[in-house]
């Protein structure tokens, strides 16, 4: 499919995503990585770069990097090097950042996702380990600024894509897929508000077939909505500049959610400006094949493989299977509902429908659902065997959501048991046909929609308790006489 053009220009987007690894301690020290502590209470002497201190590599951070590399089909480097990335900023206590440059821990790989109903794959250049910097804190009231070094030394896996995305929509789907994967793998909590998953988008535009244009890097985008808004604004701004005969200057820019605009923060450095050189305090990182296999053996089934299994074994559509694998917790809940006896398709329908609607309304994920899988399966079984209608089942779900636990007891207490007795249904049908001669005549004249009106009247007469499938069949039989 050809890349979409915007005012005759092709958009080129690449990503650098900083993923905070889910270790309890920092990458080169034993200081805590817990979020929300008072400023400068989680910065050790190593993080502060006091004289005489030496960094020690966190094994858990390396294992999380290996897990990611295996998941994306990348190459795990048997030997990788840590380097010093030199720049000066108030929240960088060393005057350099320990990162990886020439020999990263993961090379290559790809992230796959769905775009407009088709599978899309974006190649990765690399994923490398590094430490985070601290944080500058500005007080608008008294005009003072401070430095909080709690984040200094927090372990990051920086994931760099090739510049293969051609629209803000595609960029967002890539970012969502990457976010889902790192959370699924358990290597990152994915909390964008707390800075655990931060996207930097490199954006440029060019005429079709021309060399890449000059890129500008939009830093620290912490929501998918802002990501799309920032790229869309930046693309229009760059095209405006070019159409006015102005050159694009390589720069780092920030997105202002209040104005919906990007603004330049500083001119963008190139790699040589950072004067990378191997860190003399850290030996090369050696990863033996046996270590890789130990990590591989502990990995969960990946979302794409699980979705394929749901299509193959459960008969779900690709779209339904994707919904069931939106997170590992969601997939496990779906499988638990099936294991408790619910038919796969019905389980998926309820999870995508009423359950997701309620979770979204409360702005929580599946981990916060107040109904255990066995109870939901029991409710679905009562729908499947005709004990309760779909409308009645929604009332039961509401009661269960509020803390009641016994499905059958709720059905009985609320009088929601569906009427399936043939004699009772015959009486209801007789009543409806006698009361609606116009609809009867219309149906017999070939207007099939008239049947829906009669079914509706029958359900109303039964106060919603009649089995709609049986009512429909009884009406059709009676009207065909």
Summarize the structure.
By secondary structure, this protein is of the alpha+beta class. The protein has helices spanning 59-71, 168-184, 224-243, 289-297, 303-314, 318-324, 328-339, 344-362, 373-384, 390-401, 407-413, 422-435, 437-444, 449-461, 468-479; strands at residues 5-6, 9-20, 75-76, 79-80, 83-86, 96-99, 106-107, 110-115, 118-131, 135-138, 145-148, 155-161, 197-206, 216-221, 251-256, 261-267, 277-278, 285-286.
Please describe what this structure looks like.
With 481 residues, this protein is α+β, with helices and mostly antiparallel strands. The chain folds into three domains: 5-292, no CATH class; 301-405, no CATH class; 422-479, Orthogonal Bundle (Arc Repressor Mutant, subunit A), CATH 1.10.10.410. Helices cover 39% and strands 20% of the residues. The protein is built from 15 helices and 18 strands. It has helices spanning 59-71, 168-184, 224-243, 289-297, 303-314, 318-324, 328-339, 344-362, 373-384, 390-401, 407-413, 422-435, 437-444, 449-461, 468-479; strands spanning 5-6, 9-20, 75-76, 79-80, 83-86, 96-99, 106-107, 110-115, 118-131, 135-138, 145-148, 155-161, 197-206, 216-221, 251-256, 261-267, 277-278, 285-286. The strands form four sheets. Strands 1, 2, 3, 7, 8, 9, 12, 13, 14, 15 and 16 form an eleven-stranded mixed sheet that branches. The chain has a three-stranded antiparallel sheet with strand order 6-5-17, with no helix packed on it. Strands 4-18 form a two-stranded antiparallel sheet. α2 (168-184) packs antiparallel against α3, α6 crosses α8 and α13 (437-444) runs antiparallel to α14 (449-461). The longest helix is centred in the middle third of the chain and has 20 residues, at 224-243. It is elongated and about 95 Å long.
């Amino acid at each position: 499919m050809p890349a979409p053009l915007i005012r005759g220009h092709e958009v080129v987007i690449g990503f650098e995503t900083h993923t905070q690894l889910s270790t309890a301690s920092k990458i080169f020290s034993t200081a805590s990585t817990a979020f929300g502590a008072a400023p400068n209470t989680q910065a050790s002497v190593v993080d502060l770069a006091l004289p005489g201190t030496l960094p020690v590599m966190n094994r858990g951070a390396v294992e999380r990097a290996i897990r990611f590399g295996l998941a994306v089909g990348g190459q795990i480097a048997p030997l990788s090097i840590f380097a010093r990335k030199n720049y000066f900023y108030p929240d960088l206590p060393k005057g350099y950042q320990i990162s990886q440059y020439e020999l990263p821990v993961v090379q290559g790989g790809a992230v796959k996702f769905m775009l407009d109903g088709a599978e899309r794959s974006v190649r990765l250049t690399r994923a490398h380990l590094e430490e985070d910097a601290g944080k500058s804190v500005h007080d608008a009231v008294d005009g003072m600024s401070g430095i909080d070094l709690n984040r200094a030394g927090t372990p990051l896996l920086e994931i760099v894509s090739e510049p293969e995305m051609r629209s803000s929509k595609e960029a967002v789907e890539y970012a969502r897929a990457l976010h889902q994967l790192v959370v699924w793998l358990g290597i990152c909590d994915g909390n964008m508000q707390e800075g655990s998953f931060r996207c930097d988008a490199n954006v440029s535009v060019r005429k079709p077939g021309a060399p890449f244009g000059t890129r500008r890097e939009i830093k620290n985008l912490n929501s998918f909505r802002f990501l799309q808004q920032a790229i869309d604004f930046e693309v229009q701004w760059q095209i405006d500049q070019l159409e006015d005969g102005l050159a694009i200057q390589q720069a780092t820019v920030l997105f202002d959610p209040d104005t919906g605009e990007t603004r330049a923060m500083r001119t963008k450095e190139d790699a040589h400006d950072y004067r990378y050189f191997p860190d003399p305090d850290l030996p090369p990182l050696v990863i033996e094949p046996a270590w890789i296999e130990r990590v591989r053996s502990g990995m969960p089934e990946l979302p794409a493989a699980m979705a394929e299994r749901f299509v193959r074994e459960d008969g779900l559509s690709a779209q339904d299977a994707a919904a069931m694998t939106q997170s590992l917790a969601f997939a496990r809940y779906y499988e638990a509902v099936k294991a408790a006896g619910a038919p796969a398709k019905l389980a998926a329908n309820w999870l995508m429908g009423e359950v997701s609607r309620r979770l979204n309304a409360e702005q929580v994920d599946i981990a916060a659902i107040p109904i255990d899988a066995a109870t939901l399966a029991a409710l679905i079984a009562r729908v499947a065997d005709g004990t309760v209608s779909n409308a009645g089942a929604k009332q039961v779900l509401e009661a269960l959501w509020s803390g009641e636990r016994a499905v059958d007891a709720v059905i009985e207490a609320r009088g929601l048991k569906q009427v399936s007795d043939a004699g009772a249904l015959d009486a209801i049908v007789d009543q409806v046909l006698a009361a609606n001669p116009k609809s009867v005549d219309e149906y017999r004249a070939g207007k099939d929609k008239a049947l829906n009106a009669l079914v509706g009247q029958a359900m109303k007469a039964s106060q919603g308790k009649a089995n709609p499938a049986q009512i429909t069949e009884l009406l059709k039989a009676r009207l065909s006489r």
